[in-house]
Structures are given as structure tokens and as C-alpha cells.
Amino acid sequence: MAAVPLIELWRGGMLESVHSGHAVVFGPDGVEAAWGDPAAVIFPRSSCKMIQALPLIESGAAAAAGLSERQLALSCASHSGAHLHVQAVADWLAGLGMAEADLRCGSHMPQDRDENKRLTCSDTAPCQLHNNCSGKHAGFLTLNRHLGGGTEYVALDHPVQKAVKAAFEEVTGEVSAGFGIDGCSAPNFACTITGLARAMQFFAAAREGGLRETAAARLARAMMAFPEMVAGEERACTRLMRATGGKAAVKTGAEAVFVAILPETRQGIALKILDGGTRASEAAITALLIRCGVLDPAHPVVEQLIPSVQRNWRGFETGGMRLAPGFG
Amino acid sequence: MAAVPLIELWRGGMLESVHSGHAVVFGPDGVEAAWGDPAAVIFPRSSCKMIQALPLIESGAAAAAGLSERQLALSCASHSGAHLHVQAVADWLAGLGMAEADLRCGSHMPQDRDENKRLTCSDTAPCQLHNNCSGKHAGFLTLNRHLGGGTEYVALDHPVQKAVKAAFEEVTGEVSAGFGIDGCSAPNFACTITGLARAMQFFAAAREGGLRETAAARLARAMMAFPEMVAGEERACTRLMRATGGKAAVKTGAEAVFVAILPETRQGIALKILDGGTRASEAAITALLIRCGVLDPAHPVVEQLIPSVQRNWRGFETGGMRLAPGFG
């Protein structure tokens, strides 16, 4: 099966652009709804950070380091590199007796407007703390100090990444078809859209009890408790978690992947826009959160992420975004 | 016929994302090559600015105002709002006895890094001169003063836009299926991919002589003579026109449209990436310029726009971009 149209852009009453993709809603009894090819193999990219954080808790490393719920949320983040994110990662590393130089994520300019302006206008280069994955890497460093591994913790054969791969294959229920190197240099394991949705359903159904269930439940709860730590102001993940008020933990990934964990209904959602267009993955997850009953279609975030009316530089209506027929 | 895969993104030896679209190469004897649906109706957006500039010359307005070849290039531009663009439009308006307030394009932050930094760090709001379409609008104002029309020159029934529509339908060889309001508030008329390619072939074959042929030849020559005025440093249009050294006038349009005018071979090219992804439209036009023999596949711009090797924040190879099988 091929990807199917999910999101449309209209102008002057005519269809101008179309985004196609794959999406799966996975419930307690399996696949409840699917669009495109549920067996399509994708790279989850940053959408699987809560899976990559499972060993951090299961190993006892998080407890040994006394990590807070706020830090657990940050370990699942693709943050904006705002001051609060940079400071939180710096404090975390200091607590481990480590520093920015111990990170292996690389540096890039932050998305946060204020911090970006501060660096730009002072001709200051960003550091690894600004990398949107620095919280995940602080989690890797915390796990690594517990496991006693070497400093190159992003290597495929490093104990940290072996633990991540094992957890990833177990919660997706698949043997990974392969891996790619992510923007932050960590291995990113491939799975099917269904496997990713199955993993999210595991997080949604997890309750305190077994080791993995406890870890999964704590991570989902941490994401919902600190939505500003998982992304940042004006970001889709933060807006959607605030709008759903504890009913959904959501996470975006590069190249237009988006996932959602719905604890109340014990459902997991995973989607990938084939062309990598983020505007479409944000609109598609919004539509599925409404479909699953955890987001009020009248909430302002819906018009922000699925703009039925789009305006130009002078405020004139030019068109709008719509769900493709049969989607949502 | 549906859009077909044109550009692929690979990671870890696996296909991660795909961009589909429509493309047509139109020669002296008609369609020479096509991918996707040659009859697909699209909005050319800014890719048709050289068509919108035809009445400026044909009416005698450009001659009456003594426009330079550099100004004609600017009338076809989606410029970066760099200092040289802003100054050139300001001087043009002053020459008409007009000012920024006479423009109807609206304001947005410039893409040019230096000018953007200057405005950001001085907390200065952009003005309409920064709008990427301000050169086209200066052309509209020049034509309007010659025609004696009202101040709202972007209205559909205004003499300026009536002249633009007539020229558009004549060079595309089609009755427009409709129009949309563009980001700059001007009407943007719909046509088929083949119609847009036919129009570009008209520009490619045009030589000094008839009124319209002379206007088309002068605009294509102006674009190639002043590539930095048509877009800006680090922009695909400017890079590709410099790389093809007078063998191609190329122009991008919003939502991933790209066109090319090849005077030597009298060919016109038009393409649209269905999802609106600019990275793919830039790669696709690059591939077709190579196919048509006007761009050396070994030129550095090719690796810049079709990066066979993509690296992450630490410089590690993560994957690369490829042409889809059967394209290019």
C-alpha cells in the first residue's frame, strides 16, 4: 500500500498542495484505524525519545542520580534551546560532575526566539546545550555513568545504545530493519508505523507495577506535567499537551513523524508524512487527537495547527488547510 | 495521472522521505519530456513574475520611465530583501515620484542574513521594500502610472491586472481556470504545468522583433545578466543562473514551483512538487538543467542543491538526496 493524502492546502477555491502519509491508531486490542500503509518502515527520529529514555529509569540510573520529573520530561525533549532548557541541562550535567564538553550531540542555533536573538546579536556561537537533543543526551550520560561505559556513548555498540535498541525492539514488537545516524549523532532505529503505534499504546496502557510499565508510565506523566520542557513556547508539542490537559503525551520527530500516548483510552498513535513536511504532521496529529476525543475541536490550538483560514502579509484571506477526504 | 516520485531522501541506507510532483520540458515542437500529470492545474506563484512583467515593457511604460536592465531583473524577482534590493526599489520608487507607502505588497522580515540581523538586533520592523515581491510591485506601479489607473493596482479588475491576465493567458495558451490571492496580494492565475512550460518556451525562443518577443527576450536576458537581483546570495535562483552562465533564466515560486528558460535550445521547463517542499523543487530543477545540457553535473552548485551526502551537527554523514528512479 502507498501513502495516502492526509492534508490539503487550498488557495482561491482550488487545491494547491497535498501532503500524503501513513498513520495508525493502536488500541488495547490492536490496530483501530489506519491510513496509508501500516507496514511502512520509517525512522521515528525524535518521536521515540521516550523509548530511548526507558533504560535510564529501568536501570536504576535515574533514581541513583535523583532525577526529578522535570528532568525526565527533558530527557524526552526536542527543546527549543530557550534559556530555561539550556540552564536545566547545564544544572543536570553539573549534578553529574560533568560539563557541556561531555555531550556528543553537536551544536546548532536554538529555535527559541529570545535565545536565538541573544546569540545572533552578540555574535555568540551556540553550544551543545542549545542542541534540541541535549536533554536526551544528559539522560544518556546519566545512564552511562551508571553502566560505567566509555565516553563515546552514541556508538552503536556502546552499552547505552545496546540498552536503547533492546528496549526499542521490545516495545515496538519488531526486530529493527536497520538504523540511521540522527542529527544528534545517536543511532535511530527503524520500525513500522504500526510498531511505533504499538509502542505508544504500551506507554498509554502502562501503570505503576512492573519495571518497564513503571518507567513508561513515569515518562508519559512527566511529559504531560512539563510540556514546556518537551518542546517550548509556540511549539506544537507544548501547545497540544497543554490543550489536552493531561490526556495526551505527544512528540514530534524530524521528517514529519508524530506520535501520541493517550493514557485514558489506552491508545497509541503514530504517523509519518512521506515528504517530511512538518506543517502536515502537526495538522495530522491534531486531527487524530480530536478523533480520539482528547482534544476539543473548538480549542484555539486547532485553528493554529489546522488553519482553515490563511492570510497574507496584508491580512487578506488567501486560502486554508483542510483534512483530505477520508482522513481524521 | 497522478504526481510521481521525483526526489528521495535517504538515511542509513534506507529511504526516509519522498517528494512527488509534475514536470514538463517544452521544446520548439511541443512537450519533449514529462513526469506526473502534464495537465495538472497549478498556481505558478512567483515563478511567473517574468510573465507579469511583460505588460510593463509592451505598454511602453518601461521605456517611458527609462528603466534599466537591472530594474527589469528586479521586476521579475523574489529577492532576499538585502540592502542592495531594498535600496534599488527605494531608488526606483523615488524616480517615479513615489514612495514605500504606494506599494500594496505588505511587509515581512527579509531572508537576507545581514539585513535580517540588522533589523532584529535594532528591534526595527521590516517595511514593504523588504517584501520579496517589492520589485514586481515597483513594476506594477510603473505600468500603472503609464496607464493612469487607480492606486489599488492589485485589484483583479484594475487595468494593471487585466493586462497581466491577458498576457498570462496568451503565453500559456490557456484560459485560466481561476485565480488565487498571492502572498503579496496580487492575483495569481492558475494554469497547467504544460501551459507554464509552454510560456517559458516562448520566452526561450523569443528574439528582438515583435513587441511581445522583444519584451520576453529582454526580461530573460535581464534575469541572466543580474542574477543577484532576481533572488540573492545563497539562493537557488541566483546560484543556478551564475552556474549556467547565461544559458538559463530560472525562477522559483512558493509551494515548490520552479521554471527555467533556455534560450540556446529554445526550451522551457516547469515543475511543481505536490507537497510544496522547496528543497525538492530546487533539486528537481537542478536535475532538469543538467538533463537539458545547460548545467555541468560537476559544478559545485549541483552538490549544494542535490546533496548526495548530508551531514549532521558533528559532521558525520547521515544520508543524502537522490533523484527518484526514472526522473532527470
Question: How would you portray this structure in words?
Answer:
The structure is a homodimer of 328-residue chains. Chain A is α+β, with helices and mostly antiparallel strands. Chain A has one domain (4-323): 3-Layer(aba) Sandwich (Beta-lactamase). Chain A is built from 14 helices and twelve strands. Chain A has helices at 49-52, 54-58, 61-64, 69-75, 83-95, 113-121, 134-147, 159-172, 193-205, 211-225, 227-230, 236-244, 278-291, 300-305; strands at 4-11, 14-27, 30-35, 41-42, 179-181, 187-189, 191-192, 249-253, 257-262, 267-273, 310-311, 317-323. In chain A, strands 1, 2, 3, 8, 9, 10, 11 and 12 form an eight-stranded antiparallel β-sheet that branches. A two-stranded antiparallel sheet of chain A has the order 4-7. Chain A has a two-stranded antiparallel ribbon with strand order 5-6. In chain A, strand 2 and strand 3 form a beta hairpin. The longest helix of chain A is centred in the middle third of the chain and has 15 residues, at 211-225. The model of chain A has no long low-confidence stretch (mean pLDDT 98). Chains A and B meet through strand 2, strand 4, helix 6, strand 5 and strand 12 of A and strand 2, strand 4, helix 6, strand 5 and strand 12 of B.
Number of structurally distinct domains of chain A:
1
CATH architecture of chain A: 3-Layer(aba) Sandwich
Largest sheet of chain A: 8 strands, antiparallel
User: How confident overall, as mean pLDDT of chain A?
Assistant: 98
- Greatest interface and its participating residue counts: A-B, 48 and 48 residues
Poorly predicted runs of chain A = none
- Helical/strand content category of chain A: alpha+beta
Question: What's the CATH C level of chain A?
Answer: Alpha Beta
Distance N to C terminus of chain A? 19 Å
Helix amount of chain A, in percent? 25-40%
Q: What proportion of the residues of chain A form beta strands (DSSP E)? A: 15-25%
Q: Enter the CATH topology name of chain A.
A: Beta-lactamase
Shape field of chain A? globular
Order of helices and strands of chain A: EEEEHHHHHHHHEEEHHHHEEEHHEE
- Tally of contiguous helical segments of chain A: 14
- The number of E-state strands of chain A comes to 12
Oligomer: homodimer
Radius of gyration of chain A: 19 Å
